Amino acid sequence: MMSPDTEDALAEIIRTASGPLLVQGNGTKAGMLRPVQASATISTANVAGITLYAPNELVMSAKSGTRLVEIEAALAKAGQQMICEPPHIHGENQTIGGIVGSNLSGPRRVTGGAMRDHVLGVRAVNGNGEILKFGGRVLKNVTGLDVGKLLTGSFGTLAVMTEITFKVLPVSEATGTVVLSGLDAVRGVAALSAGLGSPFSVSGAAYLPHEKKVFLRIEDFASSVKYRTEKLASQLAEFGAAAILDTDASKIFWRDVRDCKFLDDAPAMWRLSVVPSAGPAILAALAPLGVTGFLDWGGGLVNLSGPANEATHQAVCDAARAVGGMWWLMRAPDPLRTAVDVVPPEPPALAAIRARVQASFDPRGILNPGRLRAA
Amino acid sequence: MQQAKPKPGILDKRAEIIAGLQAILPERAVIGDNISLKPYETDGLSAYKQMPLAVVLPETEAHVVAIMKFCNLHGVRVIPRGAGTSLSGGALPMADAVVIGMMRMNKILDINYADRYAVVQPGVTNIAITQAVQDEQFFYAPDPSSQLACMIGGNVSMNSGGAHCLKYGVTANNLLGLRIVTIEGEILEIGGKQMDAAGYDWLGLITGSEGQLGILTEVTVRILRSPEGARAMLAGFASNEVAGQCVDAIISSGIIPVALEFMDKPAIHACEDFAHAGYPLDAEALLIIEVEGSETEQSEMLARIRDICAAYHPVSMRVSQTAEESAAIWKGRKGAFGAVGRISPDYLCMDGTIPTSELPNVLKRIQAMSDEYGLKVANIFHAGDGNLHPLIMFDANDAESFHKAEAFGADILKLCVEVGGCLTGEHGVGIEKRDLMSVQFTPSELDQQRRIKSAFDPAWLLNPSKVFPLSGLAAAE
Amino acid sequence: MQTNFTAAQLEKPEIAVANNILRTCVHCGMCTATCPTFVTIGDELDSPRGRIYLIKDMLENDRAASQEEVLHLDRCLSCLSCMTTCPSGVDYMHLVDHARVHVNETYQRPLTDRLLRGVLAQILPYPKRMRAALNLARLAKPFAFLLPGESMLIKRMRAMLNLAPAKMPAPQSLGGTVHKAIGRHNGRVALLAGCAQQAIGPSINTATIELLNRLGIEVVIPEAAGCCGALVHHMGRHDEALEAAKRNVNAWSDGAEYDAIIVNTSGCGTVLKDYGFMLRDDAMAAKAAAVSAKTMDISEYLLKIYEPTSVPPDITVAYHAACSLQHGQKITAAPKTLLRKAGFKVVEPKDPHLCCGSAGTYNIMQPDIAASLRRRKLDTLKAKSPDVIAAGNIGCLTQLAGDGIPTVHMVELLNWMAGGPKPAALNGV
Questions:
Q1: B355 touches chain A (CB under 8 A)
Q2: Using the 8-state DSSP alphabet, how is residue B417 labeled?
Q3: Which A residues, 315 through 374, put their C-beta within 8 Å of a C-beta on chain B?
Q4: Distances, alpha carbon C427 to alpha carbons C322, C338, C412, C423, in Å
Q5: CB-based contacts of A156: which residues, under 8 Å, 6+ apart?
Q6: In the predicted model, what is the mean pLDDT of chain B?
Q7: Contact at 8 Å (CB) between B413 and B439?
Q8: By CB count within 10 A, which of A88, A183, A295, B363 is most buried?
Q9: DSSP string covering B255-283, please?
Q10: What is the pLDDT of residue B189?
Q11: Which structural domains are found in chain B, ordered by start?
């Protein structure tokens, strides 16, 4: 494994590479999507460190190998946070490059936006070994094509990111959670929709089927949280009496939602993004197959785990496809991940464009080949 | 501004091309006579003009597909146009190009409150989306100043912002899906109605791509529930520096207002004349700060902000008491560009973005340039997100004045890049900033972007004289 | 925005005025959004900005108007919604007025078009001729559907017939009458009795006079005053328009002292308020300016003095803002304030800024666009479930009539609540 210390060294390795490279940070997401067949591995782990932090301008830059926990600690010190609260489902070693490369977002995505919404600028090395920067350090920027967004979620298949600049926000003074009990999934999502359709700026909206409970989060100044949770609970009275979690209890609960602690450790794990109202039907359709999970993002994010076999995977894909949704195979043994569509296939016209775009970054096809789709 | 050379043979075939388009489109959907083409020669940046080959006004996606296939077959360039409000000349025609005007595709196709999205055609105006959902207390968040007129297709193409994107984000953050027609006439469905899409973020790439990659035919936007209420306050300060410090102090306190707008003295005067909003005419700089929530929440938040402002010795401070007062305050701000039209026959509106902390420094240097060029400038600034709009006043009937204004504008944008910012925050590169792209990007960065365009548009037929310096077009051809 | 006039061109006063107007425009495009024809047709050429550009090009090149320019200028309703929207204060009204004169002087319209315009100009401004014509039209109305084909002429004929009321009201001839205040004397005003209005909506003048008299205001209708000239003005018949303006200015300046010149047809009010500009280079410029300054819409005048005396019925009034009132004269709140003061529940349609398609003779000359705007306006009005539609302009009332909801001038409602009779249109409500 090659772990260059600098961007220049990393670029030189790519420029002179003679074959496919497995691109990673600390490799925590190696079990997600498809395994890569490569002769060598290049890691960004040593291209690390926070390079800019301007709390007044709500912006931070960090080299891509910087560990997420380090970033979160630095932000917390100034009373700020990552807006999309990236999940820690892959342990504490994951890097900012890994989070941005996989565009993974937590509960706050429902109203606060995804990781891709907060990436302001990137530096990256493309498959030719060219060092490129796109975007910048300012919150608004429409200069040229938004290559930063294209690289976000591209799993290292276009370019290797070396530095990322992103928007941050203050941590709210308080957090409160309205909890409604005894609701089946359909009623539960109706309650989530009502909550998200309320004027109280809900920043988290999850449903736990095994507990038959709905959770709606409010983050704001303490007086607002008190006012809004109470008002929200009364507006949702038709869904039954509400309990309210205080700041400490809320923080623990939403951390568990973020990290998918409500999934069992079955061998396969999926993440589905669908219209919120479709969430309950997906849970119901897959339960008989031993696939269980919970809903986040108001019902629109279906986190699932279950048996790792092609038939089950196909059933999960079909359930997502039936409602025009998306899927990601988040965890499974290598043979299954190699055999199936780990993300939805593309229609031919888009596939052709995608292949050309990919070639425009990496004409030799050496960066993480097959990571998203079979080559 | 230099235009690309017409493609050989196209101008000679003009009559044939117009007849061909007429054959595949309904009556009065093709404009080909010079008198009628004239009003299409420019957009919101009227300093640049170019008569197009023809204008087509499709009514359906099928029309768009037919137009694209026709133009691709005949190698004719295509320039998309929405409401024609671009301030960067995004819809400026080319002599050998067909302008495809999307104004007739103006239907709202679907609204879903439970799943919080709306599906609209590209010719729907920005404000029409909010108007369509406001009876249910929902709204579409991005609110560019031209929201009354500008169309969602243009908003997506330019990734438009607005005064409230400090809290709600820009267009890209409020989209779920798109349908686009490629130059080959293929329909691509991008994203959908769910939040995250798998694979590459095509939605993010296409948003803000200024018509370089395809023609939009459908847009799915997120709609949000309106807050309980909103109220604006005005705080006038004795200098730009002090106002800038106050902005810093507000953000540092952990308060993120929904809007935080800054105007300098010339802007205050122009806008007050138009909106009669009670802007303080004796202030050197004005902040408009808006908060949301219940009455009590608004009052608490405004009290906190007032306390912060008080430390910077404002020359005036006023909290709006009624919805009408707030509306007047915003009317002034949103009509600011047009209002400058009252004090100067013409203006160029710059759109650079700078790190907020650089504001006092940048304003000082802009003032120095203003003195040097002998042209007045009014500054309007989305202070929360660093987006600066210097409005350079000039006289378009005086060629020298215009050339000075262009040079002045270029100097401002170079300054923005120099202090760590960028050329454009929300208006797009268009034709206006095309030749400045190399100030912000290295040749290999520009090449990478050009190659992405080529992947979508191999023959560079889509809006090819915009965004990229002309050498890119030459190389592609 | 840049203009390209030569110094010689700019010596012509009307070109100098046009140039100044054009220079104010910054081509921002805000006006397009609130223009009824752009919203309906979706073509820059049918937007204010597009028309401004067409006019600019035509004038700069000193070119006779062509079919294309005339098409798009004719489609302009002159609703002036664009002027309400314009942040730069572009004086579109005077620019398009000038362009219409230019069209009239330089463009030969097709024969049928010329004939129709000539007929309208010869009939509408004269109450007696108007009445005679309407009587004929009323007889022909049941046969309107027999008119063959979809040519523009046929459509225009059909539109004209459809506008004729099914029942003709009693004739009204108010010229040369004085109506004394009742009980007290608080003031003296001249009333523009209108031309078409006397023929098709005499109850409006009656209600106006009654109400003013009861509020202690004497109402004078000088014999010499006649049609305001709006109709010919909007056809670009410059000389005829000026003639009407001069005649009226003289009639109202003729020794008698009026506190105000009251207009209850807002389309006319906009023109009266423009006499000062129209006659700016005339010997009677000062008198004209004085008349313009004294002109008030009835709602403006009533705002300070109106007092209802009756117990209000439970009636929901949808207020339709006439363009001439809301855009032309910038009077937006007064009519609603008055109706609420009278005790009515007042509602407004969505997109209140959009024209109903009446616009003088527009509903005859542009029947398709007018019909589409009428439908849109009626749909948005009906969405508010009103008992009655009220407006301050006879043209709008005629345009919106006949769709199941009574239409009535707001002054009739105000008069009703101040001791006058219940408007006939409301029988059954």
A1: yes
A2: H
A3: 324-328, 343-344, 346-347, 349-350, 353-354, 356-357, 359-361, 372-373
A4: 24, 22, 13, 7
A5: A23, A24, A101, A367, A368, A371
A6: 94
A7: yes
A8: A295
A9: ---SEEEEEEHHHHHHHHHHH-----TT-
A10: 97
A11: 11-104 (3.30.43.10), 108-225 (3.30.465.10), 230-336 (3.30.70.2190), 344-426 (3.30.70.2740)
Count other Cβ atoms within 10 Å, centred on residue C61. 10
pTM given for the model: 0.95
Say if A174-256 and A260-363 have the same CATH topology: yes
Inter-residue contact C196 to C124 (CB < 8 Å):
yes
Mean pLDDT over each residue of chain C, to the nearest integer: 93
pLDDT tens track for C110-159: 998 999 999 888 888 888 888 888 888 888 877 777 777 778 888 888 88
What pLDDT does C240 receive? 93
Q: ipTM exceeding 0.95? A: yes
pLDDT in tens, A151-195: 999 999 999 999 999 999 999 999 999 999 999 999 999 999 999
The residue extents of the domains of chain A are 7-170, 174-256, 260-363
Mutate to test the interface with A, among B143, B195, B296 (most CBs of A within 10 A): B195
Task: Note whether C52 and C90 are within 8 A (CB).
Answer: yes
DSSP β-bridge partners for residue C221: C177
Strand runs labelled E in C23-157: none
| Residue C215 to residue C202: CA distance in whole angstroms | 20
Residue-wise pLDDT tens digits, A294-338:
999 999 999 999 999 999 999 999 999 999 999 999 999 999 999
Confirm or reject contact between B303 and chain A (CB < 8 A): no
Mark which residues 165-224 of A lie under 8 Å from B by CB.
169-171, 173, 190, 193, 196-201, 221, 223-224
The pLDDT score that the predictor gives to residue B443 is 96
Please, what is the average pLDDT of chain A? Answer: 97
Kindly provide the b/e burial profile for residues A132-166, where b requires at least 16 CB atoms within 10 angstroms of the residue's own CB.
Answer: bbbbbbbbbbbbbbbbbbbbbbbbbbbbbbbbbbb
Instruction: Report the distance separating Cα B328 and Cα C241, nearest Å.
Output: 38
- Which of these, B451, B419, B443, B469, lies nearest to A131 by C-alpha position? B443
Comparing A196 with C234, which gets the higher pLDDT? A196
Residue of chain B whose alpha carbon sits nearest to that of A223: B297
Nearest CA in chain B to A278: B115
- What the block records as the tokens of B195 is 């939040």
**Tokens 């023609």 map to which residue?**
B215
Structure tokens at B295: 């009455």
User: Which chains form contacts with chain A, at 3 or more CB pairs under 8 Å?
Assistant: B
Contact between B154 and C37 under an 8 Å Cβ cutoff? The reply is no
Contacts of B368 (CB under 8 A, 6+ apart): none
Write the single-letter amino acid at C314: D
CATH classification for the domain delimited by A174-256, as one of 1.20.1740.10, 3.30.70.100, 3.40.50.720, 3.30.2420.10: 3.30.70.100
φ, ψ for residue A170, nearest 5 deg: -65, 150
pLDDT of C247 > 90? The answer is: yes
Q: Which tokens in the block code for residue A56?
A: 């007044």
Q: Do C2 and B47 touch (CB under 8 A)?
A: yes
Q: How high is the pLDDT of residue B38?
A: 98
- For position A99, what pLDDT does the model report? 97
Query: Would you put residue C330 in left (φ > 0), alpha (ψ -120 to 50) or beta?
Result: left
Three-state secondary structure call for residue B57 = coil
C-beta separation of A175 from A145 below 8 A: no
Among residues B50, B14, B10, the alpha carbon closest in space to that of B30 is found at: B14
Write down the CATH number for the domain with range A260-363.
3.30.70
- Average pLDDT estimate for B262-290: 91
Alpha-helix residue ranges (DSSP H) falling in B344-398? 359-373
| Contact residues, chain C, for B104 at CB < 8 Å | 42-43
